[in-house]
Every structure is written in C-alpha cells, then in structure tokens.
C-alpha cells in the first residue's frame, strides 16, 4: 500500500488541506491494489478454486475442481502482473503452478518455476517481441486437462507482441508511434493492435485451446470493454479489419502506414468474434477499474470532511480541451456553494490524449494540468490534481501534477509562461521547476487516470 507522503509536492506541503489531499490520492490508488483486487474475486475452498463474477445479485460463482486439473499455468501480462500473482501463489502453493510474467519493471522475488520477460512500453520493442515468442512456446505445452490463469492489466498491449506474418516489429513501432502522436484514443489504438497481432483479439485464448482459461482483468480502458484491455488477448473481438482501416483514415495515417500493415488489414484474415465456440472454455472476470478507484478516493474525502461528487469515469479527448471542461466544472461548483463552509472534492476519471506539436516532455495528465494553469488562476480557493494511477505519465517518472491559482504567478516569477511550455508539449519541464510533479513511483496497478477538483 502506498504511503500518502509519496504524493507530496510543493503546493501540497504548503496548502492547509495538503495532507488530506495526499490521503485521498493514496486511498484511490490503494483501492485498486492488484493483489487485493484478485483476492476479492478468487478463493480456494478445499479442492476447489472458486471464481466470483462481478455483476449479479446474489453474486455468481464458478467452481473449478482442481482434482480434475492436470496442471496449472499462470500468465501475468501487464504493469500489475507481479502483484496480481501473489494471492494465487498462496492459494495454489500445493499445485506448484508454472508461470510466465511479461512486465515493464523487473522484480527479484519471482518463484523458481516462473520466467520473467521485460517488454517495452509504450512502443513495442525487441523485449516485447521476445515476450511474444515466449508466450507462444509457453502455451504450446497446454492440454485439454490443464488450467491457464491469465492476469491481464494495463500496458499489456505494448509489452508483448507477435505480429502476423508479413507485419514486422518495425512496422508495429512506426504505427504505434504515429497513433500515439496523433491523439488517437487507446481503444482505437488497440483495435489496430488486435488485428495485427497473433496474441491479441482472442489470440491468447486460441493459442491456449483446448485448455480451460480463466482471465482476471484489471481495466485501464474507459468503459472497460474486455476486447480493449491489453487488446483483449482472451476476449472476442467485435471489430473488423475494416474498422481498423477506418481509424487510419480518421487520423490521416494511411499514407504513412507501412505497406505490410495495409496489406494484412486488406486481406481476409479476421479476429475471433463473439459467439465463437472457443470461448465456451474461457472465463473473463473484471476485478478492478477506474470507478472503484474514484469511489475509494471520494470515500476518503468524505472522512476528511469534504462534500463529494463523482462526475464520471469517461473523460476522453484532447488533454488541453479536457482542462477547459474541468476548470468550468470547478468554477461552477465554486459559484454554487451557498452557506456551507465544508470543502468539496469532485472526481472525473478517464483517459485523455495528446497531439504532439513540440519536442517537449510530459504525458496526458501533465499536459492537462499545464493547460489549466492559465485559467485556474482566477479561481481562488481551488485546486486541481491530475493523476495516472500507475504512477507514470507518458515517458516520464511523474504520474501527474498539482495546479493551484498561484501556479501561473510562480511560473512567471521563474521566467516561465505556461502557454509557451504548452505550445512545446513540455509540461514536465514546467511543473518540474515548480516542484509540483506527483512522483509516487510505479504503483503496480493501472486503472486509467483520475482528476481531482477541490474547492476550499
């Protein structure tokens, strides 16, 4: 669990409610700690492994008789893989499962019968390609009487890749970089990935057949469509190759897309679709998402004496445009306060995008915060915090930033105009000088981003 002090920045140190804000941020992220998330949905009952379904009342449970399972295999795929395996290792210690972990950051406490592969993120690289090869070899051992447990979390789309024949790693790198730079949404990026990769769009389920597959999924995609999380390695894909080509056209990328990719998308190959018989032996369970984190943050805010509002979990679009929406909401909330002296906390979760215009450094959360600097300065008693729940934002070691009405003036005093830095996509440089970057370090989880709007 993360200590709230890991979220301290200059503005939160000097703010009278700063300590309370850090406790709210920590509560939100700690609520989606991966081991906790898995433990809520899976437990051991003697010779049985019981899997809970998220929806329905009373909760539905799937019981797997371990006496009928020859061997248990575990694949951990994504930024949360290390943490997600811990409760399973305790539950299944007597069965000595064999495992493969595909992660972004290495860990030293991997069981002897587990192999760890370090992939690349956010653009796939040689490590991702090796991970794809290892995954295909790993699943080749499976038989009908085996159980494969997949632990899927954010980042998995880039960390492992196995391009279809005719599509190279370089092709995938060019495409991914183009999509990230043009502001495409993550669900759109992953639609293309599903159609170009052997392990995505139900590909892992295909490789594992005829074994039984249970996937425990921590969502990092707005709305949590299973096919979009890590590009849906064990989920059916409702999209088509034509949909993938339409995304290239939407962003004007067809002329810059490698020929191998265009040729493959124009072929007759398709991903596995809903209703395919293969998924009769596949169970996908969503164990955590952005909504759970937001609600936990608001619960802590209530304990701290704040009035609370969950705005939603579907914030998308260009980060600098989302900043306008958030500040308008903040302005409206400040105006509507009547006789109450209580502070308020509002949360809007989701995932924005950035269209790169300059060579600066940052990520979507920092860019949103930077775009708010010049418009929040006229809202005394306000505070905006942008937070990536994985502890990272873009190619930086910051998760987001803190913005106050004083941020603009502090920047000018240091010779910085926020608009100049925004034009250069250099939010990291701006907030680094203000010492207002959130740097909790990698959290081991990932459920999109959270934006906290405070009024005092």
Structure characteristics:
456 residues, alpha/beta, glycerate kinase, domain 1, Rossmann fold, 2 domains, 6-stranded parallel beta sheet, 6-stranded mixed beta sheet, globular
The third-level CATH topology of the largest domain is glycerate kinase, domain 1
The CATH superfamily of the largest domain is known as: MOFRL domain
Q: What general outline do the C-alpha atoms trace?
A: globular
The CATH architecture of the largest domain comes to: 3-Layer(aba) Sandwich
- The percent range for helix content is 25-40%
Radius of gyration based on Cα positions: 22 Å
- How much strand content do the residues show? 15-25%
Mean pLDDT: 95
Largest sheet: 6 strands, parallel
Overall structural class, as computed from helix and strand content, comes to: alpha/beta
Total beta-strand segments: 15
Number of helices: 17
Strand order of the largest sheet: 6-5-4-7-8-9
Distance between the termini: 28 Å
- The CATH first-level class of the largest domain comes to Alpha Beta
Contiguous runs where pLDDT drops below 50 for at least 5 residues: none
Task: Count structural domains.
Answer: 2
